[in-house]
Write a structure and sequence with these properties.
Layout (H helix, E strand, L loop, with lengths): L1 H13 L4 E6 L21 E6 L4 H9 L8 H15 L4
Helix pairs in contact: 1-3
């Protein structure tokens, strides 16, 4: 399992993530049902958290409505991670 964690973390970092973390599903035992990961994925055992830095300038541009694309880095990182894992045979 440790090799899988390292592989997923490496793929996410390679796709542009700034941080990657893993939490057992038990971490969410006290979460309200609408926020619990099992609401979406009933058989989940581990949650992967991916963090993407958003520079203040990008947020300011979004607030001012001048450059929305500056805020679109996160979905690209998630999508890139997913694609790389699928191409590597992980589902």
């Amino acid at each position: 399992m440790e090799r899988l964690t390292e592989a997923v973390g490496g793929v996410a970092l390679g796709a542009g993530a700034d941080l990657v973390g893993f939490a057992p599903i038990s971490r969410f035992d006290n979460a309200p049902p609408r926020l619990h990961p099992r609401t979406i994925f009933p058989s989940v055992r581990t949650v992967v958290a991916i963090a993407v830095r958003q520079p203040r300038g990008a947020l300011k541009a979004v607030e001012e409505g001048t450059y929305r694309q500056a805020y679109d880095r996160g979905p690209g990182v998630i999508s890139g991670t997913y694609q790389a894992l699928r191409e590597g045979g992980l589902k």
